[in-house]
Design brief:
Shape: globular
Largest sheet: 12 strands, antiparallel, barrel
Number of strands: 17
Strand order of the largest sheet: 1-2-3-9-10-11-12-13-14-15-16-17
Length: 268
């Protein structure tokens, strides 16, 4: 059994139009076959995006009805909700989302992974994984899309001397909310991790990207650096920067885990 608590903060790199705070508890069990569930709590301030789980913020087309509108006009402008409808010069119905802070339960993520080859002492390892995003977040508060998403992925790593290289890819099948048409996309990531420094700390760097979720928004590319300790009680820290795509942002996170010491495949 493994228990992890991870907190993160994400903000636009330049204009700070979006701020998102996440606190998540992960419960996991198993070694060769892993089962886990992520239970998140969100705080969000944004007038232009909705949380998209593992794919990051999803931009909202201002010409489409926002999540708070529920497909009906005249919705109240409460915290995180939609303002009343307006009409642009072309006669299209549009809506503006407020940039007030809103908070609540995020989308729960349930996953299962299976190690195909390798173990903790081997030079190589490969895993496959199935993850489901359950729409538990309040769509009217702009905390999620309100739809079920599924990711099928594979990942692996290989150790060269004191450095390990890792990478993976996944297919994301995204449900379409009423206010947007989301593409089913492929994501990929690759990076490296050092051997133990001072016997307990490993440092890493990686690059991750996915196809554009909303047509015309561009494909997000994220670079990241991090460090983590090893042992039954351990910590991890990371800093990320989205360098292209619909939103350029900075992120930071810190976590603590207790339980089975995993030195295997790194996830997104």
């Amino acid at each position: 059994m493994e228990v992890s608590i991870f907190g993160s903060y994400l903000s636009n790199a330049f204009d700070s139009e979006t701020d998102m705070q996440t606190t998540a508890v992960r419960l996991g069990a198993g070694e060769r076959v892993r089962l886990y569930v992520d239970l998140p709590w969100l705080r969000l301030r944004s007038a232009s995006v909705v949380p998209g789980g593992g794919l990051g913020p999803i931009p909202i087309d201002p010409r489409r009805r926002g999540p708070g509108g529920g497909g009906q006009s005249g919705h109240g402008a409460g915290a995180g909700g939609s303002l009343p409808d307006t009409t642009d010069p072309a006669g299209q119905s549009s809506v503006l989302l407020t940039d007030e802070w809103t908070s609540g339960i995020g989308d729960v993520r349930v996953g299962a992974g299976h190690r195909l080859v390798g173990s903790g002492g081997d030079l190589y390892r490969a895993d496959v994984e199935l993850e489901v995003k359950v729409p538990t977040a309040d769509e009217t508060e702009n905390l999620g899309t309100g739809e079920l998403d599924v990711r099928l992925g594979a990942s692996g790593e290989y150790r060269f001397w004191s450095v390990s290289v890792f990478g993976g890819a996944g297919l994301n099948l995204l449900g379409d909310p009423e206010w947007a048409d989301l593409n089913d996309v492929v994501d990929a990531f690759a990076g490296f991790e050092s051997g133990p420094l001072a016997e307990r700390v490993l440092v890493s760097g990686w690059l991750q990207a996915n196809e554009e979720v909303v047509a015309g928004a561009g494909s997000p590319v994220v670079i990241g650096v991090g460090a983590r300790s090893v042992g039954k009680l351990r910590w991890s820290v990371r800093v990320t920067r989205r360098v292209s795509g619909p939103v350029e942002d900075l992120g930071a996170g810190f976590g603590v885990s207790y339980g089975l010491d995993r030195e295997g495949v790194r996830r997104r």
